What does this fold into?
Amino acid sequence: MSTTQRSYRDYNPLRNMDQEGATLSGKKFYVLVSGTTHGAHVPWVKQFRGMGHTEVQSEGESNYILLFCPIVSRVGTDISEALENIQHSNKAVILVVMHHTFNADYVLAESRRLVNNPNVCLVVDCLFHEGRLLNCNRNGIAWFEIKKFFGAASLPAQVSVRDNIRKFSGKKFYVSVSGTTHGAHVPWVKQFRGMGHTEVQSEGESNYILLFCPIVSRVGTDISEALENIRHSNKAVILVVMHHTFNADYVLAESRRLVNNPNVCLVVDCLFHEGRLLNCNRNDIAWFEIEKFLGVASPPAQVSVLQNVRKFSGTKFYVSVSGTTHGAHVPWVKQFRGMGHTEVQSEGESNYILLFCPIVSRVGTDISEALENIQHSNKAVILVVMHHTFNADYLLAESRRLVNNPNVCLVVDCLFHEGRLLNCNRNDIAWFEIKKFFGAASLPAQVSVRDNIRKFSGTKFYVSVSGTTHGAHVPWVKQFRGMGHTEVQSEGESNYILLFCPIVSRVGTDISEALENIRHSNKAVILVVMHHTFNADYLLAESRRLVNNPNVCLVVDCLFHEGRLLNCNRNGIAWFEIKKFFGAASLPAQVSVRDNIRKFSGTKFYVSVSGTTHGAHVPWVKQFRGMGHTKVQSEGESNYILLFCPIVSRVGTDIREALENIRHSNKAVILVVMHHTFNADYVLAESRRLVNNPNVCLVVDCLFHEGRLLDCNRNDIAWFEIEKFLGVASPPALIHFPSPICSLS
It folds into this structure.
């Protein structure tokens, strides 16, 4: 029996298996459209026919319904209405949810989470605009899921550019620029010349066209117009798509997915700003792909560096610095000495070269020049690539991918600013890799701390503070007392040591020094690592990975600023882990809003707005009315306050001020925190973690821009939470969708 036959006969819909639902056999489908698509659904119907399925004119003749649901208001509402239209039917349903947008990279949550109808076998999402399906990955994925469901899946079509590669010969290229780059394309042209290729002045003389396409409107549209300009030519094309941005970490979908012109052999994306290429990984990757395509690039270094490791003996090293570090490399040299290695004054005396390469232009170029300076040597090399930034969370691709010199044994990246190494995870990781390379690294603490837990008895603890906290550790001590533990005044009386380690330089170094202070003791230790920051959402790697002292039973990280612990998830998690360790854990503190829910009765609400929304809050008010709630004109008449808080400075500060305005009231409050942004995919930490007012029953976050709510998942989620809180929402469908495919085997 074929896979396809089995998939129909043995099919079980995506639902709880004890429920009754439709089964799908046969290939006759009936098309139902719940709204206006301006014909955008027609290509889908043709695709189904192309699989050998037959469209019929009535539901009764069909084996299944192909239901198209264009979204015109809210996703959940529109899907519910679409399914409501076929509630009388027991036919199997394939639901195609159609989102109207011009953004081919639009990010959305899968709509299947909102569906729990037992007849619905498959839910896919697609994007369209003005009657046409977008050429995008989302639509490719949707069609692939449909074919996979029917057992007819093959690879998605976005690989067409690679499939259609034309093997051109010759090195003469003609430059065509489809828009204004302010000269930013010129360095690319020079790079091509540097490979030995020749720029010619007419297309006729060339072997291929080097086409630069700066994006000024929409990626797909601009690329189409650029290719339209050379449509009369049959020359091979290398297309460089140029995105104008000042953000070197700008994330974009690869443009090659939008190109299926058979003359286009390669598509790369690059970033530029005001006439200059950015110094960024995206541009490095683009150039590497070009070199690889033209057969110039060597295999990337993540293979070669590891495979070409030279087993050198001895511990004498010579320091070479290829640029200006303002002394930021000196701590690295001291660390090497601290491992028992010896710095020598000439390369000849050394066993290996410790090469520091500060990046001043492009990563690949600077590394090449640094290695060029020691090309005459056959010594083993440890390369430390130094990136100048003030951002301790700066994201970068590992530089070792750009190195294939057989003498280079190890490549690490580090961050520095104005002559000082940053106190950051990237630098900790770099040093750990160096120690591991030399066999001096200890196992990371996520193994050792848990494995070496000492089962101590008793609840007497001694407090040790390894640096200055300005009193920020005191609330922790009080929390321990609140669990029934007793603080004693000497280590000898205690059952365990509560060690606070505020970070003032490097995490690993400060922890080592803190533990060094109690090395004479064999007491069990709970280590609280304290990071000084004003950013409540500060991201850090868990410090326990740096600890392998067998006396340390638990390591937690917390955030503080100017003598006060921050009100943040990180601190809530830390305390939860401590209580869990002692067997006293309950839900973490950030759920205090839910714990303090006031069961208010009545549906009269009073609207309070703590700042300027330019009317963006009005749709929320209408939604509340649409649920049958009534807006009243005074707080006294109301059953609860609907409080809108637009953020204009800091989230915590603005929320406090908004609640301060209604502090005289004892009414229940639903708080809607409004973040002003044009980015519909804006990522934020939930504001409810910052609220512990007992009158606040629910806190949701939403996004708006210039007086309008954004059409985004964040806002959908916010409304769903409100409905759920008020007992209006249905349970989300993710419970009913254990698998993306109905059972096919």
Observations:
- The chain has 20 helices and 30 strands.
- The domain at 446-586 is CATH 3.40.50 (Rossmann fold).
- The mean pLDDT is 80.
- The two ends are 11 Å apart (CA to CA).
